[in-house]
């Protein structure tokens, strides 16, 4: 055989398969007792018939290929024969002739066919020789299988008895388990009913609590609304009070500024008077010194100078009194102006405090106002006298405290 050729042989319980390049022959037995017999005459006739069939097929192909304008592809032709059983099968061969140059392949096909026929004959002889051994083996195997079947039947009967006994026990266990499950289910059902009843009681209690809380919530909401309205009113009053306080602060700041200016003016007047007093004292001291130093001077000139000095002193005292009177008048005018502004402010202000103060001032007559003003003036006079005494005591005992304070006006004068 060539290297490109492949053969397959299989012998399995009376079945033979031979394959050579997609060409197969199959022989199948019909049972353990079936025998394959291939007589020599039958095989020779089959060989001759197959050879004639192959030769006629090749001849017809050559004739078809030699025709003019004739070209084509032929599909594979398969033929099979069963020389052992006498049944004919088609011989398959898949050989395509596409052109005139492929004629040599027919000879190769004939060679392969003869080779396959010889192999089939050899296999048939081998099967005839091994059939007796196979029959003995089959009988032994049959007896073994029969014995095994009996053992299996006995085992099956034992298993059936055991399974019946086990089934009875399982049924008994299952019945006991069902009884126990019924009892457990009944107990669980009773427990569930008890819990359900308790839960229903809790739900009713919670519903009552919810209703109470709703009523309490409504009451608290009303109180909150009332408190919010009061807070808004208080905020409005607070804003008005802040505005009034701001106005009073502005008025008080203006009044304080006016009082501070008047106080500075009075202090300036007091400083001037103090300076004049110091000048008078210095002049008096100088006069006394001149009198003591010059006794021999003219007595008349001294008397005239003393009279002039006394007149100057009287004039200064009168000016001081005039200034005090003018200060009192200015203070009275200031008080009256403040009272007038207070009345105007109280008349324009909506605050209840200012309204009560305005009503109080309106209820007072002119005499009462004058009396109150005179009392305030007396208080101011006492305060002024206290300030004068304080200044005199400072001048007498601690003049060094006033040197820096009163030195610039003295130098200016």
Automatic annotation (TrEMBL):
Residues crossing the lipid bilayer are none
| Entry keyword set | Coiled coil, Endosome, Membrane, Transport
**What's the domain of life for this entry?**
Eukaryota
Q: Does the keyword Calcium apply?
A: no
Q: Does the keyword Translocase apply?
A: no
- List the record's Gene Ontology CC terms alphabetically: cleavage furrow; endocytic vesicle; midbody; recycling endosome membrane
- Pinpoint the FIP-RBD domain residues: 343-405
Q: Where is the composition biased (Low complexity)?
A: 76-88
Q: What is this protein called?
A: FIP-RBD domain-containing protein
**Biological source species:** Artemia franciscana
Q: What is the lineage of its organism?
A: Eukaryota, Metazoa, Ecdysozoa, Arthropoda, Crustacea
């Amino acid at each position: 055989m060539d290297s490109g050729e492949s053969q397959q042989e299989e012998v399995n319980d009376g079945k033979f398969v031979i394959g050579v390049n997609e060409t197969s022959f199959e022989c199948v037995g019909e049972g353990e007792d079936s025998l394959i017999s291939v007589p020599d005459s039958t095989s020779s006739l089959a060989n001759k018939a197959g050879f004639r069939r192959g030769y006629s097929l090749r001849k017809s192909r050559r004739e078809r290929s030699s025709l003019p304008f004739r070209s084509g592809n032929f599909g594979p032709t398969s033929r099979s024969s069963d020389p052992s059983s006498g049944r004919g099968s088609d011989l398959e061969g898949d050989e395509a002739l596409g052109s005139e140059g492929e004629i040599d392949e027919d000879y190769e096909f004939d060679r392969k066919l003869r080779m396959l026929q010889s192999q089939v004959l050899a296999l048939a002889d081998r099967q005839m020789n091994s059939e007796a051994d196979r029959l003995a083996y089959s009988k032994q195997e049959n007896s073994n299988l029969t014995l095994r079947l009996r053992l299996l039947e006995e085992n099956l009967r034992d298993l059936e008895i055991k399974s019946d006994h086990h089934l009875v026990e399982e049924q008994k266990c299952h019945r006991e388990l069902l009884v126990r499950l019924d009892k457990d289910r009944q107990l669980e059902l009773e427990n569930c009913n008890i819990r359900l009843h308790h839960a229903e009681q809790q739900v009713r209690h919670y519903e009552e609590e919810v209703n109470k809380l709703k009523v309490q919530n409504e009451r608290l909401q009303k109180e909150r609304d009332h408190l919010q309205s009061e807070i808004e009113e208080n905020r409005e009053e607070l804003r008005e009070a802040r505005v009034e306080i701001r106005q009073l602060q502005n008025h008080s700041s203006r009044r304080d500024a006016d009082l501070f200016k008047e106080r500075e003016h009075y202090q300036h007047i007091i400083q001037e008077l103090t300076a004049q007093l110091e000048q008078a004292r210095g002049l008096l001291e100088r006069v006394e010194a001149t009198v003591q130093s010059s006794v021999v001077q003219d007595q008349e000139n001294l008397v005239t100078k003393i009279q002039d000095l006394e007149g100057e002193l009287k004039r200064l005292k009168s000016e001081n009194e005039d200034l005090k009177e003018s200060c009192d008048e200015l203070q009275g005018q200031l008080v009256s102006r403040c009272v007038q502004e207070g009345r105007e402010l109280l008349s324009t202000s909506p605050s209840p405090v200012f309204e009560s103060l305005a009503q109080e001032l309106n209820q007072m007559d002119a005499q009462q106002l004058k009396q109150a003003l005179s009392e305030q003036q007396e208080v101011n006079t006492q305060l002024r006298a206290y300030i004068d005494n304080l200044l005199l005591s400072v001048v007498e005992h601690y003049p060094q405290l006033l040197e820096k304070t009163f030195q610039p006006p003295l130098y200016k004068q």
